[in-house]
Design brief:
The structure holds two protein chains of two kinds. By secondary structure, chain A is mainly alpha-helical. Chain A contains 15 helices and two strands. Chain A is globular. In chain A, 43% of the residues are buried. In chain B, strands 3, 4, 5, 6, 8, 9, 10, 11 and 14 form a nine-stranded antiparallel beta sheet that branches. In chain B, strands 1, 2, 7, 15 and 16 form a five-stranded mixed beta sheet that branches. Chain B has one domain. By secondary structure, chain B is α+β, with helices and mostly antiparallel strands. Chain B is 20% helix and 38% strand. The longest helix of chain B has 23 residues. Chain B is globular. The chains are: A mainly alpha, B alpha+beta. Chains A and B meet through helix 5 and helix 11 of A and helix 3 and helix 5 of B. Chain B: This is Copper-binding protein MbnP-like domain-containing protein. Chain B: Keywords: Signal. Chain B: It holds the Pfam family MbnP. Chain B: InterPro entries: MbnP-like_dom.
């Protein structure tokens, strides 16, 4: 009995020393359907708390993260575009143009890789990159901290979240990640169909059938990506810094390979491709139908099919109808 | 009395000056590392292709080349005594123990190791680049190195990989002076022994000293030659540069950053096993 009490006391002490969450700042419950995969391990280590998420959202929308206070994370990651935007390539401070298309932010808690090339494996390590990149915010973490640490609203939120008002890089990264982990899109028409709450129309159902035949081998699982990296022979980014996944792995097998993007909310995230080379969903399908560029490491699915995914005009209409069932109107208007 | 005061007023600044300059003066337990960038035995002069100033080298593949910019990071410095004792110099503190060697700024080509224990030293070890556990762009922990690497005229940060560039070489090659731009750095992720992706471009360099360096009586100056002839005509790889967007083009960051980068890394810093010198050697030890 004494031992049990001792252990309990220890546990209580330990948890008290590290107040990730407490009665005042509880873990928040994330609404995830049972057909979704488990969280990745980093989410478990940085579980969103009530104030952590409020703080993260505030930071995400704070323009003081950029050198001239002109843009915040949300300036490129716009809720109405599933936290992407409509530019072909990202536009940062002073109108500087980045290398790639802004990726949407959704269902991050289930992902193993981030960014087009999978350079980041842990979401907490991502926020620093746009802060210091010249074509993005062109600032530094100390510059950001100096700008925000005397803000009384922040002092209140840091205390509520972490126990004191100290603004540290790690706390900033963790809070932003906590907020992003809550951006879960799981309430599209497709989800309602999965939950027997709705039915596909005839054209959507035909589109789903085409999807299963011709798209699902890569855009698999309820996340609509198998999280692999593939060279699908898309037009190549003329920027000389672009090598796709090979930039990370230095492996020729990954040359111009990119992460298979999720198709959730794809209706809201035009243009498409790693540097926005396709203005519409239709143009992506036309390109696959017409034939892609050859490459030594072209994906076998395309290599074995004359570099094409043949689609009739009718099939394209049907596919687009299905893809629109992945739109989650509640997600794009989401505010905490 | 007045006179005495006057003398004191004159003497005070002099004393202060002396006190200050003493800090900068060579003391017996300092070791000076002097980096000289060469093509074989010729010290390199930087310059544009059109300037006529730049030192021109010809590679084994017969390609002329010259540099407008040479920068590399040196860290993890250790001196090895005759008896094998290794004296680490702030190996986990980039602010005190690491430097960006920038050819264009002569003051950066000399790095002083302060307060080295007296003794006789036979070997110098250092890292080309930053070992992975420190390669995280931590401005709060290492503000000095962050500022040095991030300066607008240095550009030794690799923002997208949240690490530092280990080498940045700009220049020109071939008779038509095509652009040469070689950047190296690590993309390794995960913990040592359990890396999950990426490559480690950090290289440990081990250089025997031609004569022992005696610390304590005098402050030795160790001159380290970085022979950039080996960049293309190295111990490990003979590299032919080509421009463009093809699979093998390597002269600009497009292709070298994919698979070609590691060939430049190995030529400059060795392969970490059979070659732990790469392009480096110690030419002289001045006592």
């Amino acid at each position: 009995m004494l031992i049990v009490c001792g252990v309990l006391l220890c546990l209580w002490c330990c948890s008290k020393n590290k107040p990730d969450a407490d009665d005042d700042n509880p873990y928040i419950k994330l609404p995830i359907p049972d057909y979704f995969p488990d969280f990745n391990t980093y989410v478990v280590a940085n579980r969103p708390t009530k104030y952590g998420v409020i703080l993260g959202e505030r930071l995400f929308n704070d323009k003081r993260f950029s050198v001239d206070n002109s843009i915040s994370c949300a300036s490129c990651h716009k809720p109405e575009n599933a936290f992407a935007d409509n530019n072909t390539k990202a536009i940062g401070v002073y109108g500087r143009v980045g290398l790639r298309n802004v990726p949407p932010i959704q269902n991050m808690a289930f992902m193993k890789f981030y960014n087009w090339d999978g350079s980041i494996l842990q979401l907490e390590k991502q926020p620093l990159i746009p802060i210091i990149t010249k074509e993005e915010m062109n600032s530094s973490i100390v510059e950001v901290i100096n700008k925000i640490q005397n803000d009384t609203d922040y002092q209140h939120l840091f205390r509520k979240t972490y126990g004191d008002t100290s603004v540290t890089p790690d706390r900033i990264y963790k809070s932003i990640a906590q907020y992003l982990y809550t951006l879960i899109s799981a309430n599209s028409k497709y989800d309602k169909v999965m939950r027997d709450e709705a039915m596909f129309t005839a054209i959507e159902a035909r589109g789903y059938h085409v999807f299963q035949q011709k798209c699902e081998s890569c855009h698999s699982t309820v996340l609509f990506t198998d999280q692999s990296f593939r060279n699908v022979g898309f037009p190549i980014n003329p920027n000389e810094n672009e090598t796709g996944r090979a930039r990370v792995t230095k492996d020729m097998k990954d040359f111009m390979s990119f992460r298979v993007p999720s198709l959730r909310n794809v209706e809201y995230t035009a243009p498409y491709g790693s540097f926005g080379q396709f203005p519409t969903l239709r143009s992506v399908l036309d390109y696959f139908d017409g034939g892609v560029l050859d490459a030594e490491n072209l994906d076998p699915f395309l290599k074995n099919n004359n570099r094409r995914i043949p689609l009739t005009e009718q099939e394209k209409e049907e596919l687009i109808a299905f893809l629109k069932t992945l739109s989650d109107p509640g997600f794009i208007t989401k505010t905490q | 009395m007045k006179n005495y005061k006057m003398k004191f007023l004159i003497a005070l600044p002099l004393l202060l000056l002396l006190a200050c300059s003493k800090k900068d003066a060579i003391v017996a337990n300092d070791v000076r590392l002097h980096f000289v960038n060469t093509f074989k035995n010729t010290p390199i002069v930087l310059g544009d292709a059109s300037s006529g100033l730049a030192t021109i080298n010809t590679s084994k593949e017969g390609q002329q080349h010259g540099f407008t910019e040479i920068k590399y990071v040196v860290s993890n410095i250790r001196l090895v005594k005759i008896d094998g004792t290794e004296i680490p110099y702030y190996i986990n503190d980039l602010d005190k123990g690491a430097a960006v060697i920038n050819h264009a700024k002569p003051e950066t080509n000399e790095f002083v190791l302060y307060d080295i224990p007296s003794g006789t030293y036979k070997q110098l070890k250092f890292g080309l680049g930053v070992k992975s556990e420190l390669n995280t762009i931590d401005q709060v922990r290492f503000p000095k190195f962050y500022a040095a690497a991030g300066a607008n005229d240095t550009e030794m940060m690799w923002e997208w990989g949240t690490g530092y560039r280990f080498a940045k070489l700009e220049g020109f090659y071939d008779v038509d002076h095509k652009k040469l731009s070689i950047h190296t750095g690590s993309t390794i992720e995960g913990e040592e022994g359990a890396y999950t992706q990426g490559v480690d471009a950090y290289r440990d360099i081990e250089l025997d000293l031609p004569v022992a360096a005696v610390v304590g009586n005098a402050a030795p100056i160790i001159t380290i030659k970085a022979d950039f002839d080996k960049l293309l005509s190295g111990n490990i790889h003979t590299i032919k540069l080509s421009s463009g967007t093809g699979m093998d083009d390597n002269a600009t960051p497009n292709r070298h950053t994919s698979v070609q980068m590691m060939r430049f890394v190995e030529n400059m810093g060795g392969n970490g096993t059979t070659d732990k010198m790469g392009m480096f050697s110690v030419t002289t030890v001045e006592q």
